[in-house]
Structure formats: C-alpha cells, structure tokens
Amino acid sequence: MTIVTIERLGHHGDGIAAGPIYVPRTLPGEVVEGEITGDAMPLPRIVTPSPDRVKAPCRHAASCGGCQLQHVSDRFVAYWKLGIVTHALAAHGLEVQPRRILTSPPSTRRRAGFSARRTKKGAMAGFHKRGADVIVEVPDCLLVDPAIAAALPMVEALAIAGTSRKAELSVMVTTSLGGLDVAVSGGKEVDPQLQMQLAAIAEKFDLARLTWEADLALTRRMPEQQFGLARVTPPAGAFLQATPEGEAALLSAVTEAVGSASRIVDLFAGCGTFALPLAQAAAVHAVEGDAAMMQALDAGWRKTPLLHAVTHATRDLFRAPLDVSDLKGFDAAVIDPPRAGAQAQIAELAKSGIPVIAHVSCNPVTFARDAKVLVDAGYRIDWIDVVDQFRWSTHVELVAGFTLNA
Ligand SMILES: C[S@@+](CC[C@H](N)C(=O)[O-])C[C@H]1O[C@@H](n2cnc3c(N)ncnc32)[C@H](O)[C@@H]1O
C-alpha cells in the first residue's frame, strides 16, 4: 500500500499526485492510500477527504462512466473550469478573468448517446462503464432530461429487434418539440420485417422520428427545435447545444456582443441556433460545412414571418475560410467552431475590420490560440462567460465578446 497526496485535478477529471500518479475520483489536498499499478492508483481509499468532496447525487455514479465529477462540489467545479480558461489564455500571454460561470441544472441534457446489447433474457441499455466494454443501466440518470432517461425501455426494444447477439447498438436520443428524435447506428440491415418492427416501436413509444443508419427514417411528427421565432427540423443527429439553458446563456451573450449590428455573419452556423434568433433584429449570412444543416436552417427561416433576411452558404471553413472581401460589409461576426478551433477563419476575421465578434468555443485551448490572433490584430476581449452546459463532466464551453480597438 502506498499513501499519496493529490496535488491537482487533471483535464480528464482524475486526481494527480507527484509522479505523476493518476487517482480516479479524488480531489486536490486529499490523502489517499492504495496499490499503484503503472502510473495509476485505480482503487484508492480516501484517508483525508477534501471539504469539496460531496456524496454523488446520482445513484449510478459509482459504476457509470457518463459523469466524471459527481464527487465534487459545484463550487469547486466552477472554480476549476474558470481556472482552465484563465490558464489557457495565460499560456498565450492573455491576462483575462471570465466574468461569470453559468451552470446548467441537473436533468437538462437534451441528448444522450446510449449503447445497447441483446442479452439472454432480452436486452440492456445505458452508458459505458468508464474505460470498459460494459454497459451500465442508468434508469435514474440525473444528467439527461427525464424524457430521455425514461426512454431506456425503447432503446432495449430497438436492440432486441435490430441487432445480433454480438453487436452493440448506438442509439442517440434527443428531445424535440415533437417528442423524442432517435437515431440508430450499428444495427442490422433493414428488411421488411425489421421495418415493421421499427414502425411498431416508434408507435408504441410515441417517437417523433426514428432513423436507422441512412437506410430508414420514420417520421411520425416533425422533430423540431425552436430557435427564436423559428422552428427547425435538424437532420438526424445534427449538432445541437447540450442543454436549453446553456443555449439560452450562449445566445444571450452572443446577442450582447453583436449589439445593434444590422448585418451579421454567423460562421459554423449549424442549423441556426444563433442565426435565426439574431435575424429578429438584423440580416444574417450563415455559413456552415454541412449542406443538410444549411437546408434545415433555410427551411426554418422560410416558414417564419417577421424575420430579417437570412442567406446561407455551405462551405468548408477550414479549407476555404471567408476572406476579407467576403467579410466586407458585415458589422458583426459570430463564430462557433468545433473543438479544433478556427485557425484559418480567424486569420481572415483578424484582417476584416469587423468591429465586434462573438466567439463561442467548446475548447479553451484552441479558443486561446485563436483569441491571441484577434488580440494581436487589434481586438480586445471585453468579457468571457463560461457556460457550463456539461455539468459533472470535464468539458468546458465559453463565449467571449471582442471589440476592435478604435
Ligand atoms: C460547435 S458546432 C456550432 C453550431 C451552431 N453554431 C450551433 O450553436 O448550433 C460547430 C459547427 O461547425 C460545423 N463544422 C465543422 N467543421 C466545419 C468546417 N470545416 N467548415 C464549416 N463548418 C464546419 C459543424 O457541422 C457544426 O455545425
């Protein structure tokens, strides 16, 4: 047995002692005891607990790999996530403190990616155990919207109907205005018998839409999302912000950043999460790499009265960013890239002269890199909000307002 003291919380949520020794589900300052295997102490006994250690609120926390930070107080998680952002910025010489952190409540995640397998008795569905090929059933999951947690019997029914004993089914369940929107991958090929079974499951569980790979889409009601005044039907599995509360916080910050702009370019626009609400007050040009998402945005805009013009373009913004001439005439930009950030597009934005930029990011490291380019080009960071829509996980989302110095 070895005794170690945890020095810090790593980026994957493990406590780290000198060595480094990685100790799961521990906190800085804690003294822990256990066997060390390689660079890990997989089964620590807590000798001296941290005052920030809490009893996991969810009864599945010990076995489920869905959450990494159920043993940590909200206060500590907030402080830790704010610190991740501050450190990422400091690495580029940017001394900025986020002005606040807005954490989504429990039971608000609007999407879950469940795994399901057939068993001798029927099927089991849930999340993977951490680092293991084992499914943990999570009927009382406190992370996801209750309608999603209640859908596990439906996921099991899909596994019984549509997978072999050896395969594992991936089932993405999303809440929508029309009910649950379900997208399945990893299942059997659809034949007439499976098609009938899937139709019966969609009926029995009152699904809005059930898609099976690219082979089958059963739509009983439109699985719409509300973006401002507009209702949009996203393609199956398309990106959505993680919680309605997180989305509202991001939109409110983006709206603050663009201020009274009348011509806004929305880069990495998705299905219109920001573009369509912003179109209540300004003309918007939305650009995004996925053509189906652009079509969904356009269809939502066309059937919504009272919005300003929303134009759109499908474009790979990594390979072919909008250049300075494309960006001419806009008085605000919104940019919300994937984890890799937006190096090429930011280089063009930096030269554009657009007076205000709202930058949303799910990766503080690439955000800080891209923010530095804007700052070097004469922008200042007015504020940064951390929007914690990834409660109990190590993910960090943020939004920042930039203004071009006069
Ligand atoms: C973080 S999401 C943001 C979407 C949208 N702003 C929202 O809030 O719903 C990033 C978006 O970038 C798109 N994307 C990923 N790589 C891209 C690329 N190379 N060019 C253009 N869009 C890309 C994705 O399809 C996705 O919709």
Structural summary, described in words:
By secondary structure, the chain is an alpha/beta fold. Helices cover 24% and strands 28% of the residues. The protein has 9 helices and 22 strands. The chain has helices at 74-90, 146-149, 152-162, 192-204, 244-258, 275-278, 291-302, 343-352, 364-376, and strands spanning 2-9, 15-17, 21-23, 31-34, 45-48, 100-103, 111-118, 123-128, 135-136, 169-176, 179-185, 209-212, 216-219, 225-227, 230-232, 263-267, 283-288, 310-314, 332-335, 356-361, 379-388, 398-404. The strands form 4 sheets. Strands 6-21-22-20-19-16-17-18 form an 8-stranded mixed beta sheet, sandwiched between helices. Strands 9-8-7-10-11-12-13 form a 7-stranded mixed beta sheet. The radius of gyration is 23 Å and the shape is flat. The mean pLDDT is 96. The structure holds S-adenosylmethionine (SAM). Residues 239, 241, 268-270, 273-274, 288-290, 293, 316-318, 336-338, 362 line the site of S-adenosylmethionine.
Shape: flat
How large is the radius of gyration?
23 Å
Instruction: Report the total helices.
Output: 9
Q: How many strand units?
A: 22
Please report the distance between the alpha carbons of the first and last residues: 62 Å
Helix percentage? 10-25%
Uncertain parts: none
Classification by helices and strands? alpha/beta
Regarding quaternary structure, what we see is single chain
Give structural attributes.
single chain; 406 residues; alpha/beta; 8-stranded mixed β-sheet; 7-stranded mixed β-sheet; binds S-adenosylmethionine
